[in-house]
Amino acid sequence: MKTTKGQGRRPMPKMRTRNPIAVERAPLTVGDLISAAYDTLHETGVVLRVLGSHRMAEQIGRKLVFL
After folding, report:
1. What is the structure's pLDDT at 59?
2. Sign of torsion, CA 32 36 42 50?
3. What pLDDT score does 1 carry?
4. What φ, ψ does residue 12 adopt, rounded to 5°?
């Protein structure tokens, strides 16, 4: 038997939007990718490590190699 009075837990209501936003994929160049990494990370070594990582290669579909 329940000994406490009051309201039980309720789930949060589902968020609704009136007009769903259509998102189009914009073409991304390697230069855009490098400049965004430099703007975010500010260090050459870290940028090279992130852009050359296996996870980045999986996301963009290509392996970037820097010489």
Report:
1. 87
2. negative
3. 58
4. -65, 145
